[in-house]
Amino acid sequence: MLVGCIYAQDNADTITAVYIVTLKQAPTSHYYSELRVKHGHHIKRNGSQRSRLDTARNTSRTGGHHGSYIDRLHDSLLRKALRGEKYLKLYSYRYLINGFAVLVTPQQADKLSRRREVSNVVLDFSVRTATTHTPQFLGLPQGAWAQEGGFETAGEGVVIGFIDTGIDPTHPSFSDGTPEKPYPVPEHFSGICEVTRDFPSGSCNRKLIGARHFAASAITRGIFNATQDYASPYDADGHGTHTAAIAAGNHGIAVVVAGHHFGNASGMAPRSHIAVYKALYKSFGGFAADVVAAIDQDGVDIISLSITPNRRPPGIATFFNPIDMALLSAVKAGIFVVQAAGNTGPSPKSISSFSPWIFTVGAAAHDRIYTGTDTDVMYTLVSAIHALNDTTAANDMYVSECQDASNFNQDVVQGNLLICSYSIRFVLGLSTIKQAIETAKNLSAAGVVFYMDPYVIGFQLNPIPMRIPGIIIPSPDDSKVLLQYYNSSLGRDGTTKKIVKFGGVASISGGIKANFSRAAPKVMYYSARGPDPEDSSLDDADILKPNIVAPGNYIWSAWSCRGTDSVEFEGESFAMMSGTSMAAPHVAGLAALIKQKFPFFTPSAIGSALSTTASLNDRNGGPIMAQRAYANPDLNQSPATPFDMGSGFVNATAALDPGLIFDSSYDDYMSFLCGINGSYPVVLNYTGQSCGVSTMNATDLNLPSITISKLNQSAVVQRTVTNIGSNETYSVGWSAPYGASVKVTPTHFSIASGRKQVLSVLFNATMNSTVASFGRIGLFGTQGHIINIPLSVIVKVSYNNTGG
């Protein structure tokens, strides 16, 4: 930092910035991946056998020989390229990509880009962050957990890495207190546990087995506040603690908030292990250079990313950005990558996770709802603006928000329900529910009712536990009805017009005990939607996004005791949050169950198992619905399409017995990238590999879906399935997208265990249309397996109208 600060002062006219530099020489993971293939090694997760690959990986990280060698190469390159000039290297990337992050001027970045050893130089960019009942809603206790031997062993031996805001290691969700049963750290994990004043020795254990923080890029910008953000893996926000516990928190942890008990919490894979890589911070979000450093760690089986870029990546394709390309290297190393879709829905092309090697998860509601806290009798309603203790308070335009008890006459409020306004200031954090509740308590109110300001449109308000009876009317229209009733019930003096009687009465019911709706799941309005934009000009990619939807609305999970992301839950051990950030770790945990059962599965095989078995219907048996507006979302919904929900709603139990899988390799993804027009130099820059003669279109990737952005008269698409079950015979059925015809061959096939079958799908456009339409292929096995393949066709051209 001293070097960076001196540099900025001595060269006031020169702007420095962080650049991510990748080199042509392959990273260590590529070497070890080739070693594994060459020697046919397989890593056993039960610890009974340790391969040469594991030994090499541990040596590279803990022994540091190879890592320090790469560091020296990076330092030597910088000295040669920037002779005598000042710079600051922030990170050396060693394992998944070979490169470094460095603080330099644009002129120095240009010098680095001209070195023959250098593949690519990219300017750093910013990123942002995007349960008690969901295990039951997903059927885990009697389904997936039972298949794995119960919650006591669910996810055992699998390591999930979380790139987020850190973790509170003192939370009981991350304790390893199970002395009656061995709980060894998996041998293939070789990460470290950082020790600081905020994260002391002993913070890690057999559950939380790795923790680091990455903030160098933020520090060089002068925006890192060590007091507020904590220069350690400790979670000062709450978001990271929440997501880690959703995926892998311990089973049976009591959820007590505001003195109320809301059941017992469990992660999806409660026996799996956690590694935390903090690269996001409350005050500013995060930066790609720090996220890439977090990704570039060895030993995890799954990466969960509840983050998205702040802008669509520029260039010839959205896939070519430092984060996605680092994640491609992670996939090559056998790591399954889960990412939140983003909270920018419901408009089309709002998706913030782009690449086919990343499993993108949207947010859906589950069936539990809360409506208010309990009162048993009727109480008089008194508006805050009619309970002021003098006329001066009336000059405060925000007095109706009930933030200061001294503004009100306790004699008027006492024993009544106080009506307060919920304005945009609550959304911005300038006013809080907690403070309004404190005001009501100090005035001895029987409870509090919040009405929604008409200017608060499209804001999702999570249910908030209150220490006195209270309710928030979430709709401006419903709030208007309440206020009309209240005002019409007032008794006024005929001469002075002063209020002489408060005639409106109400009771608040429900709230502590959950209600359950059968109209679930449904896709939430904020969940980002497809189609997947291929480039910054919003051309559509032939790739389905999102891949799937999972519970993301009203999710209880662990909370950092110093977490400040939600002021309403400050000081609590649990919080209720909503967003695709909550959906992604659900899938990460379920992927751990699949990895436990099928340790040989590739990342794409795990994604295939989750996708082809996803549910298409809600609890009523009707189609899953998707909300389509910010305002009154439940009144603006229609059946979800693949661009809303991908393959459907995750089915944890069925994913453990998929029957057939669609597999894709790193080489397939490389061929796809090389098939993008003008991509050859970019692929070389990012991967250090030259494109060969063999390329493929996105439609040729062996994905468990088919998306055609432009069907020009006809197209033939092939898919290859692999039978991971017993011998089985399948029949094939389909429904064609509107404006197209579909024919699949063969229509019946028998497939032995371990064998492959090629399916050919012929599409013909039957009309000209630019409106997306959807269909589905179903494979129905005699052993009960059902494989669903969503079809999406956007532009359809039935004839060529050129040439007269």
From TrEMBL:
<feature type="active site" description="Charge relay system">
    <location>
        <position position="239"/>
    </location>
</feature>
<dbReference type="InterPro" id="IPR041469">
    <property type="entry name" value="Subtilisin-like_FN3"/>
</dbReference>
<feature type="region of interest" description="Disordered">
    <location>
        <begin position="43"/>
        <end position="67"/>
    </location>
</feature>
<dbReference type="Pfam" id="PF00082">
    <property type="entry name" value="Peptidase_S8"/>
</dbReference>
<dbReference type="GO" id="GO:0006508">
    <property type="term" value="P:proteolysis"/>
</dbReference>
<dbReference type="InterPro" id="IPR034197">
    <property type="entry name" value="Peptidases_S8_3"/>
</dbReference>
<dbReference type="Pfam" id="PF05922">
    <property type="entry name" value="Inhibitor_I9"/>
</dbReference>
<keyword id="KW-0378">Hydrolase</keyword>
<dbReference type="InterPro" id="IPR037045">
    <property type="entry name" value="S8pro/Inhibitor_I9_sf"/>
</dbReference>
<dbReference type="InterPro" id="IPR023827">
    <property type="entry name" value="Peptidase_S8_Asp-AS"/>
</dbReference>
<feature type="domain" description="Peptidase S8/S53">
    <location>
        <begin position="155"/>
        <end position="619"/>
    </location>
</feature>
<keyword id="KW-0325">Glycoprotein</keyword>
<keyword id="KW-0720">Serine protease</keyword>
<comment type="similarity">
    <text>Belongs to the peptidase S8 family.</text>
</comment>
<dbReference type="GO" id="GO:0005576">
    <property type="term" value="C:extracellular region"/>
</dbReference>
<feature type="compositionally biased region" description="Polar residues">
    <location>
        <begin position="48"/>
        <end position="62"/>
    </location>
</feature>
<dbReference type="InterPro" id="IPR045051">
    <property type="entry name" value="SBT"/>
</dbReference>
<dbReference type="InterPro" id="IPR010259">
    <property type="entry name" value="S8pro/Inhibitor_I9"/>
</dbReference>
<feature type="active site" description="Charge relay system">
    <location>
        <position position="164"/>
    </location>
</feature>
<keyword id="KW-0645">Protease</keyword>
<keyword id="KW-0732">Signal</keyword>
<dbReference type="Pfam" id="PF17766">
    <property type="entry name" value="fn3_6"/>
</dbReference>
<protein>
    <submittedName>
        <fullName>Subtilisin-like protease SBT2.2</fullName>
    </submittedName>
</protein>
<dbReference type="InterPro" id="IPR015500">
    <property type="entry name" value="Peptidase_S8_subtilisin-rel"/>
</dbReference>
<dbReference type="InterPro" id="IPR023828">
    <property type="entry name" value="Peptidase_S8_Ser-AS"/>
</dbReference>
<dbReference type="InterPro" id="IPR000209">
    <property type="entry name" value="Peptidase_S8/S53_dom"/>
</dbReference>
<dbReference type="GO" id="GO:0004252">
    <property type="term" value="F:serine-type endopeptidase activity"/>
</dbReference>
<feature type="domain" description="Subtilisin-like protease fibronectin type-III">
    <location>
        <begin position="700"/>
        <end position="793"/>
    </location>
</feature>
<dbReference type="InterPro" id="IPR036852">
    <property type="entry name" value="Peptidase_S8/S53_dom_sf"/>
</dbReference>
<feature type="active site" description="Charge relay system">
    <location>
        <position position="581"/>
    </location>
</feature>
<feature type="domain" description="Inhibitor I9">
    <location>
        <begin position="18"/>
        <end position="129"/>
    </location>
</feature>
